[in-house]
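Kindly go through one protein, given below as sequence and tokens. The question is how this chain folds according to its tokens.

***
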Amino acid sequence: MSILKDRDLNSFIKKEVINGSKQVKGKKVAIAEILDNTLISLPVKSIYDMNEKIKECYFFIVKNNAKQPKFRYFLTISLANNSSDLMVQLAKEFALKNRLKLIQYSIYPKTLRIQLLSIKEIKEIEEYNDSIEILKEARKNFRKKLVMLKDFVENK
């Protein structure tokens, strides 16, 4: 990404995304990423709760290990407030099909809840609105599968 594009994205993030969103206070756990079969830790600089704009949506600003760009931006949506292997299996197919990543992450570490988040990296301004729609669809698809599973268990 060129430096000019990086500045445009930074301006867009500050004006359109962060403005009006509430920053999550407290310590933040790093996000792990596998790159070339090596586990890399990406320190989370800040998290913004975008619940006012998009239900169960958060925006992560993460320090980049590479020199450019300095920060990476991730749009996330909470699929489940308590994550488990079962929840991951229910969300996995849609995530793979739509190039989303799933992470188990505690946004509010004091509550000791590990949420299941569907996460999409934003590299260009044009990706932002499409990413929101894909993440909303991921949540809708996941909730639909949960209801189907609940109905199946109740009817057995």
Q: What stands out?
A: Residues 127-155 form the longest helix (29 residues). The mean pLDDT is 88. The chain has one domain: 3-151.
